[in-house]
Each structure stands twice: as C-alpha cells, then as structure tokens.
Amino acid sequence: SVSVCVLGCCCCCLAMAASAALHCSFHRALLRSFQDSVLGHARLYSSCLISKRKQWQMARLGWNVGTLASASAVTAEDPGTCSSVPSAAVSDAGQKPTWRANIDFKWIRDNKEAVAENIQKRNSAADVELVVRLYERSCNLAKEVDKLRTERNAIANMMKGKVDPESREELIEKGKRLKDTLAVLEADLADITENLQREGQCIPNMTHAHVPVGSDGVATIRKLVGKKPDFTFPVKDHVELGEALGLFDFEAAAEVSGNKFYYLKNEAVLLEMALINWTLSELLKRDFIPLTTPDLVRSTVVEKCGFQPRGQNTQVYSVEGTDLCLAGTSEIPVGGMYMDCILTESMLPLKLAAFSHCFRTEAGAAGLATRGLFRVHQFSKVEMFIICGPEDSDALHEELINIEETLFSSLGLHFKTLDMPTEDLGAPAYRKYDVDAWMPGLGRYGEVSSASNCTDYQSRRLNIRYRPAEDPLFKPKKGKGPPLRFVHTLNATACAVPRMIIAILENFQQEDGSVIIPSVLQPFMGGSGVISSKQRYGI
C-alpha cells in the first residue's frame, strides 16, 4: 500500500512535469530522467510493539534483600541529563523514555575506554561509566529473573501431578514467595532498563579517525574553490541590494509574523523557484528520487533522528497540546518515512532528494551575522538523504560532498569545504563536512551547506534494517537466512534557499545595483540574465 501511495504521488508530479514539458525541451528531458529514477523502488515494513509495564509495590523480599539493595543503589545515582546532547527519548530529565533505541550496550561495555575518550573529545555530558554499571546490573537482574521464572514454572508443573496435601501446601507457599519476589525484581529491572535507555541515548556517535579534535577553530580545509570577487565599487550586503531591487519586505513580515521572517517578492521568488528546480534537476541526473515531506512530524521521530524537541534552547517548534513539531529539516520526516522498515540489500543505496519547508527557533541567535536572510525562522531547502549498507557509507559521504562542491562551483561561487571538528559534531554525526561560501556583504564566509555521515546512530533509533543477500557458500539453518543489519544514514544540504540567495546577490552585484544571475539558473528564470531596478511586477 505504501508503494501505491508513493507511485500515486509520483503520478501527480509527472503530471506537473508534463505540463512544464510543453514549454521547453529541457523540461522534457527532466521528465524522462524523473520517470527513470522512480521506477523499480519498493519498501518492506515491519512493525514493533512497545509495551508499558505495571508499577509494583515492594512486597516480601525474602532471601533477595541484598540483590535488591545493590540494584537500588545504582538507580538512585544521579542519572544526569542530556541537555548538552541533542538526543534523548525523554522530554525532561528523570522521566522514563517514551521509546527504546536498539543500542549495542555490550559493545559499549567492551569498548568503554574508546567510548569515554570519544565523549571527552566531543565535550559531551554523557556518562559511559554509569551506562556500563546499569547495563551490567540489568544483565545480572535479568539472569536472576529468568532463574526464578524457571523455578516458578517447575512448581506449577509439579502441582499438576499427584501431590500429597502437605507437600501441596508447601509448594503453594513457595510459589507465592516466588511470585512476590519476581514482582519486585521485574519492577526493579524495568526501572534499571529505563535508566539505561535514558543514559545510553545520551552517548553520541563514535567519530571518524580523521576528524580534527577540538572546537570550531580547528576545522581543517578540505578544498578551496574559486577566488573572492574583486569589486571596484563599495560593496552592498544582500539587504541593501534586495530592498533597492524590491526583492524583500522584512518590515511587513515582522508585523505579520515577527522578527526573522520575510517576504520574497518579484525576481527573488523566481530565484527561489529556479534554485529549487535546478538543484532537483541536477540530483535527478544522479539517480536521486524526488520527495516532498510533511511540515509537521511527531516529537518521537524528531528525537529518534537525534534532535531534542523540548527544553531550553531547543531549535524545534512544538505544537502546544499535541505531540507534533515543525520539522527543522527534511532529514527528520525522510528518516521517519522508513521507520520500522526491513529493506532488502538489493534496494540499497536509497538516494532521496527532499524539498521541504524548514522551521527553527534560532534560540540564542543575535547580532550582525543574523541580519536579513542569514538566520531566519522559516526557509525552503532541498536535502539529500541516503540509506545504505555499512560498508558503503564512507564512500557515499564523499559522493555527497562532491555533489555539493559541483553544484556550488556551477553557480560560480567562491567557497571552502571544511572537515568539522569533534566539538562541532551533533550527536548523530560520525563525520561532517561544512561548505562555507564567501559573502562579500558580510565580509566573511558563511555556511551554506553541510554533509553528515550518521552511520547506524539514527537507524538504531528509527529501527531501519536490511536483509543481506544470501551468500551461496553459506548454508543457513532451515528457515533462517542471514541476520538483519542496521543501515547507515547520511544527509547533506543541496540547496538552502536563503543562504544561496545571499551568496548570489552579494557575489554577483554590479556597480549600478543590478545582479547577474548565474548562467545555470537563467533557463529556470525565463531566460532572464539580470535582476535590475526596472521592476516588472509593481509590488
């Protein structure tokens, strides 16, 4: 049914593309490319059930007082908070998790020193020592619970046979004691498991060996493309240029919606559409499947992707009285689209190009760097998202950054690509590249894009797995194939519209106040090559 829905959406897109195809041969080629990219894709879904436990009051402890006391000592420790880590399945510190991540706690225990070093390098507040203690206690309690359940079952089986009255009474009493002890142990195990989940979800992803260690100042330059433009006249910033050309209205937007909102007008609207359509057309050539996504997503999906929708300084808008949030990036709804999926290896890699609106609170942002379009509450973006096998994610990460570099080079921009340091990585990112374009009006470089390899961090939370192809030399047991594996996910910004508009206006401004449109965008703007003060629309 999901495939039918996807194909239905695709048919609507094909109809729109067909209309455009009447106007120029380019759009006909784009339509054919789109048709080729859509065919043959399907998805398989599996479901999971999340159960809630009952709360049990402490009853007769019997011989197990020591075990319960030591277990309580672990849960009574300060559980810490995830305030500095953008990932946790709890709305507030101390509350029980609302979902469970498939975290490999055994691996964390066996590699405790490496995990601790990684946490330190990222300047994270996670506590791996506490996680290991909770994990070992949960393992020990689970074994004890299993042992008591076995004893309880043995008593039940004995009661089914011929037992003299005196022995039956003894078995009944022993069964009652086991039941009470089990109730307490199971409740305690559930508490420890919840704490383990909360603390485990605070641990960030591991880090690529080549990532520089430290804060933003130690980022290494991967590539420097182009040169700064040489102006022979006073340079204007995009706000001055846009207001003179009738492209923006920040004052009206502030009255209607508040600060950091904007109206685009006249050629700025055409420029946004041109950027989106050109970017999508380039990604279709590279076998990406186009998507549009919902603006609203459930808060649990936001959390599973590694973002914190609640708490101080959150970048996420929440809808009061609901569990819905406005998506800050299409990475969230696209990842959620495959939540609880089991894919086949032949479907990988899945390359998706999602156009969406993005909403961010921009808490704490202030100053000249936020002037105009640079830091806003709402904007349009085309995002690349890839789901792949673990062996392919490093190579696909390089492919994503190469695509970004090709796109921005085609626009004629001067930019640098940075390998971002450990303290600048979000919790999901194993490695992240940023692209900073030169913005003459700001007099500095400004981030226009990034590309992140999140390995299996998100897939373990979203429960996205794949079934490996069977090895002809491997003979599995009857009815069993290769074990399921978690996919790797990657995301990269192909076009964040406001930042691209800033870069284009400021880099290609002319002495008379006009702006040259990059040649690759001109076919998407009706053939126009210049934005000038000769307004055609009169707004």
Side by side, the strands of the main sheet go 1-10-11-12-15-9-8-4
Kindly provide the radius of gyration, computed on alpha-carbon positions and rounded to a whole number of angstroms.
Answer: 28 Å
Cα distance spanning the termini: 46 Å
Shape estimate: elongated
The mean pLDDT is 83
Pairing-aware structural class of the strands and helices?
alpha+beta
Would you identify the regions where 5 or more consecutive residues have pLDDT less than 50?
1-93
What level of helicity do the residues show?
25-40%
Strand tally is 17
Kindly estimate the percentage of residues that lie in beta strands according to DSSP. Answer: 15-25%
Q: Number of helical segments?
A: 15
Described by strand count, sense and barrel closure, the largest sheet is: 8 strands, mixed
General description of the model:
It is a single chain. This protein is 39% helix and 16% strand. By secondary structure, the protein is an alpha+beta fold. α1 runs antiparallel to α2 (25-38), α3 (65-75) runs antiparallel to α6 (128-160) and α3 (65-75) packs parallel to α7 (165-200). It is elongated.
